[in-house]
Design brief:
By secondary structure, this protein is α+β, with helices and mostly antiparallel strands. It is built from 8 helices and 11 strands. The chain is 24% helix and 28% strand.
């Protein structure tokens, strides 16, 4: 039996993918849940954690965001991409097995409507005792995402409909430090 992820990889264009996006569109808009958290201690390393600290300067403590920087370390880390967030429903569609979710490279996986209509730049989310703010910095898939989940998946995620839904995720910055646990509520504030 084909998985949902296999269905997305077999899709040719957004029109074919639209029926698969129904569950993503049904995500909660005001209060959601932290489904998974991932720390990236080094390039291509993933550490799934049950709890984490979000820090104003470091982002997710223990993650390599600041040290890694941009452009392969040639430029400083982008404060508007301090914490990357992905819809747990979107990654489930792309990856299928939950054990593969962390491969996407994001830090927080939330069951929440991440669409631009629901979370425009400037929107603040209380995540555990921390607060993050959605930034205008686009979050698009890269070669690694395509290699891990398929070019067809990346094309659907980066299509106009996929971008409107922010299927690849959103960039945020920490505006109030605090602790976050898997299972915590996520609230628009």
């Amino acid at each position: 039996m084909a998985s949902t992820a296999d269905s997305v990889r077999g899709v040719r264009g957004v029109a074919s993918a639209s029926p698969l996006l129904v569950d993503i569109r049904a995500a909660p808009q005001e209060v959601g849940t932290v489904e998974l958290m991932v720390r990236r201690p080094a390039v291509d390393e993933r550490e799934v954690v049950d709890e984490a600290e979000l820090d104003l300067e470091e982002g997710l403590v223990g993650d390599n965001w600041r040290a890694r920087g941009r452009s392969g370390g040639r430029r400083p880390a982008n404060p508007d991409a301090q914490i990357t967030v992905m819809s747990s429903r979107a990654i489930a569609l792309a990856a299928g097995d939950r054990d593969r979710w962390a491969l996407a490279g994001d830090q927080l996986y939330l069951d929440l409507d991440l669409s631009g209509d629901n979370l425009p730049p400037g929107t603040r989310l209380e995540v555990g005792s921390a607060v993050i703010e959605v930034t205008a910095e686009p979050h698009t898939g890269c070669k690694k995402f395509a290699a891990r989940f398929g070019l067809e998946t990346l094309e659907v995620f980066n299509s106009p409909e996929g971008r409107a839904l922010n299927l690849r995720g959103i960039n945020t910055r920490v505006v109030r430090a605090g602790a976050v646990h898997v299972g915590d509520a996520v609230r628009k504030i």
